[in-house]
């Protein structure tokens, strides 16, 4: 093991608690799983999770190379990343709000809505789901700050810092993938149980509002 045993178990506890804490990543996976419907929901949710988790390796690499420290200490660079992340979150939120306001065919009754499930949005490609996940993670300055502050606490100074950082990011990758793909499966299962369109629109509206609020808060901090 690249990391000393006592450091690894401490990291495992900390990163597990972080993984299951609801946040932007959780909502994005659930939104995309719901957007994909019965046919593509699980795929879209899992691919979004892959994109999010690939971003962890980018943050781990930047942390190990010290670029995260430079980014935080350089006001204009940090501000640029912060605004990029804020704008992206607001864009995701507005997309969810548009989805919430979309309507199915006017002649569809409740039974046809629950069984045929008219799509609220056109199916998206795997690349779109992956890109959304990756950008939401990479453009989140809070993730960079977290990796800069957390990872060094669990790295043995006597070892290779870069290899240890990637190893810890890989552990986070596995945990986050398992949790987020499980959430995507729950969303798809709930659709199979015939959750009404009104409930789906409400969830999209709540998700969109949350993204917009977080983006606005990030921009004004």
Rg over CA atoms, rounded to whole Å, is: 19 Å
> What's the overall geometry?
globular
H/I helix tally: 10
- In total, how many beta strands? 0
Which SSEs are present, and which pair or pack?
Elements: H1 5-20, H2 24-35, H3 37-65, H4 67-73, H5 75-101, H6 110-116, H7 126-138, H8 141-150, H9 161-192, H10 197-220
Helix pairs in contact: 1-9, 2-3, 2-7, 2-9, 2-10, 3-7, 3-8, 3-9, 5-10
Structure description:
Helices cover 80% and strands 0% of the residues. The chain has 221 residues and is an all-alpha fold. The protein has one domain (5-102, 122-220). Mean pLDDT is 78; it is low at 105-120.
Note the main attributes of this structure.
80% helix; mainly alpha
Question: What is this entry, summarized?
Answer:
The chain has 221 residues and is mainly alpha-helical. It contains ten helices and no strands.
């Amino acid at each position: 093991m690249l990391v000393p045993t006592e450091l690894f178990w401490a990291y495992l506890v900390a990163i597990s608690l972080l993984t299951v804490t609801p946040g932007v990543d959780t909502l994005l996976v659930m939104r995309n799983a719901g957007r994909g419907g019965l046919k593509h929901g699980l795929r879209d949710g899992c691919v979004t999770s892959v994109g999010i988790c690939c971003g962890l390796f980018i943050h781990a690499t930047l942390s190990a190379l010290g670029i995260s420290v430079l980014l935080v200490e350089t006001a204009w660079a940090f501000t640029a990343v912060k605004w990029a992340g804020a704008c992206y979150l607001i864009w995701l939120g507005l997309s969810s709000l548009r989805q919430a306001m979309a309507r199915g065919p006017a002649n569809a009754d409740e039974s046809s809505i629950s069984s045929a499930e008219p799509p609220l949005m056109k199916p998206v490609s795997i690349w779109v789901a992956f890109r959304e996940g990756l950008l939401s993670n990479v453009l989140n300055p809070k993730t960079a700050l977290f990796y800069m502050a957390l990872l060094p606490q669990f790295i043995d100074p006597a070892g290779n810092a870069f290899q240890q950082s990637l190893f810890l990011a890989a552990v986070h990758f596995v945990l986050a993938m398992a949790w987020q793909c499980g959430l995507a499966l729950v969303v798809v299962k709930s659709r199979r149980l015939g959750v009404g369109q009104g409930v789906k629109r409400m969830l999209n509206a709540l998700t969109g509002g949350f993204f917009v609020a977080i983006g606005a808060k990030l921009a004004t901090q």
